[in-house]
Amino acid sequence: MLAVTLAEMRRSAGRLAAAGVAILLGSAFVCVTLLTGNVIERAFTDAAAARYGQADMVAEWTSGTGVHPATLTRVRTLPQVRAADPVADTTIAYQAGDRTVSQATVGTATSPDLDPQTVASGRLPTAPGEVALPVHLAAQLGVDVGGTVTVTPPADTTSDGTSDGTGRRTPVDLTVTGTVDDPHGAFRDTGGAAVVDPALLDRWRALDGEGAVFTLAVATAPGTTPAELTRALASVLPDPEVRTRAEVAQSNASRLTGGTDAFTGVVLTFAAISLLVAALVIANTFQVLVAQRTRMLALLRCVGATRGQVAAAVVGEAALLGLVASGAGVAAGYLLGQLALVVAQAHTDLPLPAAVTPSVASVLVPVVVGTLVTVVASLVPARAATRVAPLVALRPADAPHVDRKAGASRLAGSLLLVLGGGGLMALGVVAGYAGAPQAGLAAAFLGGTLSFVGVLVGAVLWMPHVVHAAGHLLGRFGPASRLAAANTLRNPRRTTATATALLIGVTLVATMSVGAATASRSLATSLDGVYPYDIEVDAYGDGTAGTPSLPADVLRRIAAVDGVVAVAPVTTATMAVAAPDGRTSSDSEQTLVLGVDRATAERALRDTALLDGLDDRTVVVSRTPWVWSPPTDGEDAAGVGLRPVGTDGTATGPVVHLAARAADRAPAGGVYVTAATLRRIAPDAVTTTAWIRVGDDAGAAHVVSDVQQVLSDAGIDAGVSGLAAEREGTQDVIDTLLRIVLGLLAVAVVIAIIGVANTLSLSVIERRRESATLRALGLTRGRLRWMLAQEGMLIAVVGTVTGLVLGTAYGWAGAGAALASTGGVRVGIPWVTLGTVLVVAVAAGLAASVVPGRSAARTPPVAALAVE
Questions:
Q1: pLDDT (tens digit, 9 = 90+) per residue, 278-302?
Q2: CA of 149: how far to CAs of 137, 302, 463, 834, in Å?
Q3: What are the TM regions of this chain, as residue ranges (predicted)?
Q4: The whole model's pTM is what?
Q5: Cα–Cα distances in Å, from 408 out to 93, 412, 413, 821?
Q6: Is residue 507 in a domain?
Q7: 382, CA 20 to 30 Å: which among 600, 606, 814, 851?
Q8: Range of the domain at 8
C-alpha cells in the first residue's frame, strides 16, 4: 500500500499542492510567531532596563527621606558595591545665541557600566563648568565641541552652580566637551539627555527642591547576591528593595506591555485560527482526492485490500503531506522572521538583533502541529473512503449520497450557545458602563467565543438557506446563473464548510477593524474632553507689567507653522479668589485666572463645552475649586469674587463679583473669564499661554518641534506640552497593532480562498457527466467557466457578508465593554476597510474558479459521458 500511496501522491501532486500550501502557511505562521516572540520580548526588556545601563542590580526605596549625596558617598564605600549612581534627572533650558531649548539632564556616570548613553564625539564632563549635549540638541543650538552654551538654573548661582541666595535666575555658561547618543532608548521620551558633572546636577536638583533620589543603579563586586547587597544597603539606609537588572526589566516591560508572553499568546491564537481554517481546507482537499479515486479504491478493495488498509493509505498520505509541508513552512517561517526583523530595524529605535535565533521549539512545534492537524483533517475523508462497497463504487455514479438532515441536538446546542453567548456579551457591555471594564471585557470575550462557536455548529442549518436566498437573486441573470445557484445546494455540507472557512477569517478581520475604529473614536472623544486643546505653550514672562510673554508676532509665526489649524492667545493673571459672600480668608487663597476670547478659543479647542456659558459677567470654574465647597452635579457655583494680586503677592483693590458656572471638565481650581473681563479686573495681565489646535492629518511630533523652533528662534523660554503627540501616538499604536493583526488574519483568509478552489474542484468532479450533458445541449465553454465563477463568487460573498455582520457586532461589543467606563462609546465603522474586504473576497472567489473552470471546459463531452 505504501507504493500505491506514493504513486497516487505523484499523480495528484497538483491537487495536494493546495492542501500543502494551506498547511505550509499555517506552520510558517507558528514558526514566525515563536521566533519574533523571543525577539520582541528581548527588545522590550532591554528597552525597559536601558535607563540603568549595564548595572548588575537596582536598589529602590519606597519610603523615607531618600538617598542624599552624603548617603550616596557611604553607599559607594561598601565592599559589595563596585559603583553606584543615582537614577535621576532634571530639565534645564540651554541657550546659544538667540535659541533656547529645554532638555533632560543627568550626571556623568561613575562607571561605564552605569552609563546608558554613548559618546558620539569629544568626552564627558569632568568639572562643574562642562556639559555634553545630545547630538540633535547640539545641532539645534548650532554649537560644536569646544563651544559654549548658557543655562538658567532653578535659582541664582555662581559659575560653579551654587546659589547666592538672591533668588534671581542668573545665567551660567558651560563649555561643551562632547556629544552623546542614546542608542538603547533610555531617554526616548525626552530625545536623549544632556550630561553635566554630578556635583553640578546635585546642586541644581537641591535648588529645585529635588535633592534626594530613591533609585540607585549599582555595579556590584563579583559574587555579590541581591540578599547580600540588601543587607549592606540597609546598614546605610533602611528598607531597600534590591532586584537584579533582569528582574526590573521584566517588571517594567510587563507593566508597559501587559506582558510580552501575552503578546506571544495573542499571536499564537491567530496562528491557531489559521491552522483551523487550514484543517477545513485540508478536509475538503482530501474529499476531492477520495472522490477522484473512488473507482481506484474500489478496485483495491476488490483485489483484497481491507477497509483498514484503505483508510491507512489516506491517513498516511496526509501524514507525509503534513510532514513535508510543515518542514517547508519552518523554512519559510525563518525567511519571513528575518525579513520582519529587517523591516522592524528600519522603523523602530528599539535595539534589535541582526538575525533571528533558532530554537528547538521554533522547529519542532510547527512540524508536529502541522502534521497533526493534517492527519486529523484527513480522518473524515479516510472514513468516507471505506464506507462505499466496492461494487457500488464501480458503478457510473456522479456523486456519493449525502445526508442533508441535521439532528435536533445540533439545533438545540447551536441555539443555546448563541443565546447564552449573546447574553454574556450584553452583560459585558453593561458591566463596562457600570465601571468594571476588566470584568466586562472578560464576559464579552467569553460570550463572543461561545456565540461564535454556536454560529459555526449551526452553520449547516442556516448557511444553505442564506446561500439559497442569495442564489435566488443570482438566478435572475440567466441560465448559467441559475445553474450556479443550484450547484451550491447540491452538497450543502461541503458548501457550508467552505463558506465557514472564509467566515472565520472575515469575522475576525471585521471584529478587529470595527473594534479598533470604535476604540480610536471613543478614546479621541474622551481625550478631547479631558484635554480640549492639542498643544499648550506656557511661557515664562519677564515680569514687566503689560509686556506680553508671548508677543503677537511670535503667535503669528506659530500660526504659520505647517499643520497648525488655529492659535488662541490666553492672557493670565494671579488673583485672590473670594468665597460666594465676597470675603477672602487670606491672601494665600490665590489662583491663576485665564482670559480668553471665546470665538477665537473655540476654534482652537476640540471640546468647546469647556466654555459653555462664558461671557463678560460669568466665569467658568471647576467643580473642585480651592476655596468654596464644590457644587453638586447639576448645580452651578453661587458666584465668585476676584481680587487682583500685586507684584508683592498681596491682594489689592476691590473684589469684582461675577456669576459662575461649574464645568465638570475644567481643570481643578481653574477659573476662566473672557479676555475683556480680565482686562477690566487686571489691566496689566500678560499673554503667557497659547492654545494650539493641530490638523488631524498633521504630524503632531513635527508640529511640536516646529513650534519649539519658533520659540527658540525668538529667544523665548517656554514649555510646550499637550496631548497632540500622545493622541497621535495612541492612534499610531492602534493603527500599527491593527495592521499587524490584519496581516496575521489575512493568512487565514488566503487559506480559506484555497478552500473555495478545492470546493469548486470537487464540484467539477461530481458533476463531470452533468457538465458534459450541458455541453452537448449547447452550453459553451465560456458559459461553463462563467457558471463556475459565479458559484465561487456566491460562496465567497455569502461567507464574507456573514462574517462582516458578525464581526461588526463582536467588535462593537468588545469595544463597548472595554471603553464604556471612559465616558461613553462612539461606534466607528471603517467602511473603506470593510468594503475592501468584500471586494477582495469576490475577486478571490472569481480567481479560485479559474483552474476548476478550465478543467471542466477542457474535457470533451463524449469523454465525460463515457462509462469508465
A1: 666 666 667 666 766 666 777 777 7
A2: 11, 97, 74, 55
A3: 12-35, 262-289, 310-336, 356-380, 414-435, 441-463, 497-517, 740-765, 786-809, 829-851
A4: 0.59
A5: 76, 6, 9, 42
A6: yes
A7: 851
A8: 1-51+259-395
